[in-house]
Specification:
The protein is mainly alpha-helical and about 200 residues long. Helix content is about 70%, strand content about 5%. The chain has 6 helices and 2 strands.
Length: about 200
């Protein structure tokens, strides 16, 4: 599951990094794609879980909320920056809290608890970071070769989202590899004479 969540995050981080368009419509479309894909992974993981209980319920709820937010974003790509900020911060605050709660509650009982705590905390911080961007921010700047541009609130919010996906994606890849290595059987010891 961590690797399946990491792939769309890293792909969309690359899209934002290499795109010259950092408008609210791009943010809504990329966020919508992420919400649907990552949410579907969480829902599938919850449905495949053999054990019932808090982990399954919270994962399922987080997945449904992610898919719902993604569908809303994809349905309203021209809704503008205020709507994008509202949808993104609501999503990040709720799902971040759910994942953080799941990780803290599962400490010592699940190998994934550390990953849940990290991703939940970073997701909650995403909500705070986006809310700290002044809505009407516009700062002209001059780049190399006398390039004239304007750093706007939209550029900052979409950039923050891209940075969030890069951080979470890389962490989830590392977490997936760590879980796989931890689950691999240890090689036979040469001292015991076992082949």
């Amino acid at each position: 599951m961590p690797l399946a969540r990491a792939v769309p995050a890293l792909a969309l981080a690359a899209v934002i990094t290499f795109s010259s368009d950092h408008s609210a419509p791009l943010g809504l479309v990329t966020f919508g794609i992420y919400g649907v894909l990552a949410g579907a992974v969480l829902v599938a993981s919850a449905l495949r879980a053999t054990a019932k209980g808090v982990v399954r319920s919270v994962t399922f709820a987080q997945g449904i909320l992610s898919v719902a937010a993604g569908i809303v974003a994809l349905a309203l790509p021209a809704a503008g920056l205020p709507f994008f900020v509202f949808l993104l911060t609501t999503f990040a605050a709720i799902t971040g809290f759910l994942e953080l709660y799941l990780g803290l509650r599962s400490r010592g009982r699940s190998a994934s608890s550390r990953d849940w705590v990290f991703v939940g905390a970073v997701t909650a911080l995403l909500a705070i970071a986006v809310l700290l961007v002044p809505p009407g921010y516009a700062q002209p700047f001059t780049g190399p070769n006398d390039f004239q541009g304007v750093l706007t609130a939209s550029v900052m919010v979409v950039g923050i989202l891209g940075a969030y996906w890069a951080i979470v994606g890389i962490y989830l890849v590392i977490g997936a590899l760590s879980l796989r290595w931890a689950a691999s059987p240890a090689p036979a010891s040469a001292e015991t004479g076992t082949p």
